[in-house]
Structure formats: structure tokens, C-alpha cells
Amino acid sequence: MNPVVRLCGLAVLALGTAATVAGLVLPWTLAGSRHPDLLTIAGIAFLGPLLSGLCLAYGRADPRRFRLIAGVAAVAGIAAALIAVGLVRLVSPAAGVAVGGPLTVAGAVCAALGWVLLAVAGPVLPPLTEPRPWLVAGLAAALLIVGAGFAIDWAREGRFVDATIAGKPPTTRDGGWPRSYAGTQLVGVHDGVAIVRGADGIRAVWLDSGETAWRYLRSDLPGEAAGLVDGAVVAVFGTVDGILVTGLDAATGRERFSRRYASGKIATVRAAGSIAVVSSAGVGAGDLLGISARDGSLRWRWAPARNGGPCDVTDLAATAETVAVAMRCRAEGVDDMAVGLTTSGAEERWSWHAIQRTNPELRVFAAESGFVTVTGVPHRAVYMDAVTGSVGARHDAAGALAVPSGTTLIYAEPSGDRAHLTAVDMRTGGVKWEVGLPGLGAYQPVAGAAADGRAYVLWRSPDGALRLVGADSENGAATDDRRISCTTRCPETSVSTASGRAVVATREEKSTTLSLTAT
After folding, report:
1. Per-residue pLDDT tens for 73-86?
2. How far, in Å, CA of 481 to CA of 233, rounded?
3. What is the pTM of this model?
4. Exposure of 217 by Cβ count < 10 A (0-12 exposed, 13-18 middle, 19+ buried)?
5. First and final CA of the chain: distance in angstroms?
6. 20 to 30 A Cα–Cα from 274, which one of 187, 288, 293, 374?
7. What is the spatial distance between Cα 189 and Cα 1, in angstroms, rounded to a whole number?
8. What distance in Å separates the CA atoms of residue 381 and residue 425, rounded to the nearest whole number?
9. In this structure, what are the phi and psi dihedrals at residue 238, rounded to the nearest 5 degrees?
10. Rounded to an integer, what is the distance from CA 363 to the centroid of its chain?
11. How far is residue 26 from each of residues 30, 124, 154, 394, 458, measured CA to CA in Å?
12. Angle at 220 (CA atoms; ends 214, 222), nearest 5 degrees
């Protein structure tokens, strides 16, 4: 048995030495590709690879003291590993733990283990003609490499992530709404779950039971934004020098990708076919990124700028072939404009300039084959083709809140006498239907959403009471009218809908808890 142990010890020692050297050469941080100081690198190199080489040479020259020499080398290897562990723990998680540090730790531990095996077996090698020891040593080395790989992956990412995947959906429908969850944003509704983003990550909640379906939480990075794109939750986390973007299957929570990009703080994630358009908002918005929701590859980067100066991004909408960016540019006066970009490469298809005589920022909504921009007070809406940018029909916006539904804009208009919904064909500007909403005379529309032939508008009364009103997108027929529980004025509200289900989220100012109610 001793020949097998000796050969395994040599193999493990060789792997550990090589890994330690490689770890000291590779970066220890993702941000800035930083290394430890030279004195520390020299100390680890001396206690690890250099001392191992000296001990091997001395052990061959004086075999009688080989076990003592091996013990000294093993202790030195453990000391090198402890120094490396301390340094890896000092790396800021927001800067990103690169492979160099964990690889150095793994290499030093392996080298120490190799010396322990050699101390047990002694210095004499097995005959080169005996295949069994070599086969066992090779198998041991392969297992060690696999184990070290898992350990390095845990050290870099796994220790910061708390993730589960979805099990079987509930068989009974008993949500017990409203319910409260840790979060700050209702991302959307997908396949029977509501997606909630918090500062610590993403949670998915079964609409039928209200229980958590899956989660992806991080202890190292703050969550900035998230969106539903091509069946995935694309979540953005802030880092020291940019962002970490993680794609999660919306139905199960399984991770599709996780990649870092250079970028400023992110405010929104919008879907453009299978591309996630990641953008900031407001003054100094910075570049927009087009990221594949399937593999996380960066497809394009586009800077919102005109006349030599940056522009503020005021709104964003997208179809499968075009991304429409609403901007306010100030390099030469105030210029409100919309720019159409190809979803595949961010080439500019067209631009449209608004004539603004008042201060409200430009808004843009996506239709099936075009966009509608809304400007001014009173609001003026203009339809334009998504591909060519050619301007079509114009109409006066029929309400204070607009909810896009296919090729229709559904306007919600408050009134002391008769609050009402009005559906306008985006392409022609013609009114398709109008319905009154009795009992909402003092209410104001605060949020809306539409999908699958249904539109939902959330109304708030002066005392903070909320009512969710649903209507058929084709004819305005009432589908829902329910009161939403809210103990105060609930300053932050949102609505999302999919597959005939609607979810209302309310949040108190600066609160880290969302209250959800599902229909």
C-alpha cells in the first residue's frame, strides 16, 4: 500500500504547488484585477512552492530525516493556506472575489496534504513498471481537482448566495391576501407566480397559496433593478465598478447566467424580444446595455447623447425589433426627443423631436408595430412606425393615465362628476369605446397594466383607499371591481397582470416590505 500512498502524495503535492503558483499570478479581485502586496506574495511563495522544493531536495539527500522534513513542509503549507484565507476574506464582496485567492488557498492545502501522505509512506518511489499505483494516483488527483473546483466556486460565489428552485405548484387556491413580503418592487407576474425584488435579491410567490415558490438572495451585493424578459427574471446587482446581471428562469428560479459589466447605477430592465435593455434614468443616465436574456452575452452598448453632451433618459419602451428611448437633451437648449434603436445592435433607425411648451417629460408606449409618444399638458399623443419612425395619427390624450394594450391605449380620466375609461386606437387616434366608472368621483388613477385582453387600473381616494377596476380591452365591459386593503395612503403602488391574474403591490415610503394582493 505504501507505493500507492507515496505516488498519491507526490501527485497531490505537484498539483498543489502548481495551483499555488497559478493563484499568486492570477487576479484576486474582479474589480481592478488586484493582487496582494509583493511582501505577502513572497511569504506565501516561500512557505509553499519554494520550501516544498527545498524539502524535496533535502529529503532525497538525507532519507533518514525525510518524515521530519515532510512534517516541516506540511506545517509551512498550512501556514501559507491560513495567510491566503485571511487575505481572501479581506476582499470586498462588492469588488468580486476572483479565482486567484481561492486557487491559492486550495493549492496550499493540497500541497500540505501531499506532504502528509509522503510523511506517512516515506521517500521511496514505486517501480515505474507497476501500473496500479499510477492509476490510483491519477484517480486521486482527478477527484481532488473536482473537489477543489467546487470549493473554489463556493468561495467565490456560493457563500454569498441563498437560492432555491420551485417545487410543485399548490393544488388549492387560498392566498389569504393581502400578504407582506420583503421587497421594494413588483417585477411582474409569470406562470402562476408573482416576482418580487428586494435589496437582497429576488423572491417568487405562488399566487394560489401566497407561499414562496423560489428565491435567489445575495448577501454581498445590493439589488438595483429587475425585469421579466423572454421567460427569465433579469436581476441587476450593484458592484464596486459596475453591475452583476443574473438571469433566472421565471417559473423555476434556475440560474441561466451571472455576469459582470461595466456600468453606472441601473434603474430599469425592459424586454425587447429576447434582449434585456438595462438602463439608468434621469440626469446622467449613462450607457444603455442590450443583454441576451438566454445566455447573458452583451449584444450592444449605446450612449444617450446629442450635440456633444449627455441626455437624460425619461422613458423607455420596446417592440421585438426596435427600442424607443425618450430623452431630454440640454447641450443646445432643451430638446425632448425619441430615438429608435435596433434591438439586435442598437443602430439608430430614426429620431423624432417633440415641440414642448411645458415642462413634463416625454413618455413613450409600445404598440404591436409602433410607438406612441405623449407630450405636453394637455397631453398630445403621436403614433409612429417602429421600424421607419414615420409619423402617423395624432390625438389628444383622453386621460391622466395611459395603459397600453396591444394596439390600444386605454386612458383613465378622473372627474368629480364621472370618472371614466377611454380606449383609443394607437394607429388611427379613433375612440374605440368609453365607459363610465360610478362611485369613483373623488378617486385618482395611480397605476395600470394590461395583458391577455384585460386591463386593470388602480384608483386612490383622497383618504388613501384603493380600488382595482378591471375592464375588457376590446369593449370596456367590467371584469373586476374590488377594494384593496391599505392602512395608510400607500404612496407607492403598482399593478401587474398575466394569464388573467392581476397583482397589486403597495409600499410605504422608504419601507423594505411590499404588501401584495392577487385577484
Report:
1. 999 999 999 999 99
2. 30
3. 0.87
4. middle
5. 69
6. 374
7. 61
8. 11
9. -80, 140
10. 25
11. 10, 35, 18, 60, 54
12. 75
